[in-house]
Amino acid sequence: MPNRPFCIFIVDDDSLQRMIVSDHLQGYDYQIHEFASSAECLAAMDLQPNLILLDIEMPGQSGLETCRALRSEGYDAVQVIFVSAHDDLDTLMGAFESGGNDFIPKNAAKDVLLRKVEIAIEAEEQKLMLQRQLSYAQKTAFTAMSSLGETGLVLHFLRSSFQCMDLEAVGRLVIDIMAQFDLQGLVKLNNGDEEHYFRSDSTCTELEKSILEYAAKLGRISQTGDRLVMNYPHITLLVTGLNVEDSELIGRLRDHLATIAEGVGVRITSMAIEQERLKDANARMEAVKELVGLITEIEARQTQNHSQLEKLIEEHRLQMEEAFVFLALTDKQELQLNYIVDNLVNQVEVLFSSDNSLALKLNSIVEKQQKLLRVGAE
């Protein structure tokens, strides 16, 4: 944005309404100008407004006609937020088709108005960056269109889509393919947890988001005049400005866009499956780590217990040999007692050997599971 206050025009034939809106905007670094008619507004465009709060219902030239005049005269950079007491679909579509950026009901609360202005400022800050990206995309599109046919573009899109790992990447890819078909429009993507909105040359305005919400309630494919709406799982696509005089071209575009939209739905579904597989693999890996830790602990305890038991048995043997002196046992009795002790020691060692064999088997199973997890991750 240039280093000057954000310039806002308030255009309304109702002086009280202008005063209320102007009062809401006081106290901020805004440059505010009030106009009672569309003619006054158009005559003052040399002031280079950033935002116009434009009443729709005005005597003489309406707000919709004013906006169309602004766009036809090349004032595409200035943002227009329509103000109206009506918020039905026809009003919203009229605001959109005349070139509006957003919509706000009359007598809206101060915090709502200020938030709309903040959104307009954020949109202007993002526009320069997005225009640079668009310039690069258009160059890429020109190269692609010269080397690939329409079907080739669709196939290239489908291949490229499987390299996308999130909704943002998929959405930008859809915008790129639309540019390659020389189409303008809006896109809404969702995966059940989040929603992302896209438009051809900038970020979606709040008005455009509202229009996409309405469009999502329409049928699978719906065309009215030069507007085409497509609804597939995980995607709503609104294309505007179709050449209605070329029915053959529109038919091909409908087919291509349907393939693209269906491909997007498949990719978003597969991304969700991949995420679930990744979560499952991570959970299994954590379980294997816990199992390895447990087996390591068991082995350490077995080694410690074995050592302690051998020590106790040896101490017990020495104590028995010392006791033989006082018990006055015969050689045969001493041999018999020594045999009992040796037999006990052998049985204990057999048990430890069996435990060690089981631990080795568990380790073998864990190693195989780890190899399977590594292969799955690759």
UniProtKB/TrEMBL annotation:
PROSITE patterns: RESPONSE_REGULATORY (PS50110). Pfam families: Response_reg. GO terms for biological process: phosphorelay signal transduction system. It comes from the Bacteria. SUPFAM superfamilies: CheY-like. Residues 7-121 form the Response regulatory domain. Keywords: Phosphoprotein. This is Response regulator receiver protein. It comes from Methylomonas methanica (strain DSM 25384 / MC09).
